[in-house]
Structures are given as C-alpha cells and as structure tokens.
Specification:
Layout: E1 28-31, H1 39-42, E2 47-48, E3 53-56, E4 63-65, E5 77-81, E6 85-86, E7 96-100, E8 103-105, H2 119-124, E9 129-131
Parallel strand pairs: 8-9
Antiparallel strand pairs: 1-7, 2-6, 3-4, 3-5, 5-7
Amino acid sequence: MDLTLTSETFGTDDQSWLGSAHGTDCTDTIVLDTSTFTKADHYPNGYFRSGIPLGRITATGKYGPYDNAATDGRQTLDGHLFAAVKAPADNTIDPAAALLWHGKVRPSRLPGGAGSVDAAGMADVAGRIRYAD
C-alpha cells in the first residue's frame, strides 16, 4: 500500500462562451481523436479547452477540431466541446467528452476567438446553434 502524500493542481474551466443554459442539459457523449489536436492550440495547459469547435471524422466516428479545409469529415461543424477534458500524455489514447450540439454560443469568447468558427461552420449548425455576443 502506498500512502505517499501527493498533490495535484486543477485549473478552472472557462465556459463564458456559452450564451445561455439552453442545450447544456442534453449534450451528446463523444470520443475525441487526440491525434488531430495540437497541444499549443487546443490543450496548452494539459486540458482540451471547453468551447473548441468540433467536427466528426467520417472514417472513425471520433471528433477532432473543426477545420473547413479538412477532407476527413471535420470540415463540417457538429458542435462545441462542452466541458474541459484532461488530455492524455499519450496521443494514441482518445478520451470521452461531451458535445454541445444546440444552444447559444458567444463566438468572441470561444478558444481561438470569433474566427474559430467561420460562416461555413455557422451554416452547418444553423437552426441548432445560434451565434451572438
């Protein structure tokens, strides 16, 4: 039995990008494809930041960062990462997460700012997600 005292520091999750509570009670469970994210942009502090725009990878059904120029399915915006998720040390491990697929989003407060979702992405989720600051 190991009774060594250890400590762990946790940050806070910034969900100021949420425009309302609408949709937060019915998120979908998804799996993130860690290999499609970059540490500097998506998890600089060891956690995937909530609010990251996500697209579904057609071949695997897993989710990666939305990229309108992608050709693997991520060019279609499906929603946003609802809550921060600890990034694994090994990028072959894919953690479970929650997808906010409808509700109101404040684009200026998204990780990466208002430019992280372009007009094409907004059109993908029109009728499900409303973007307004």
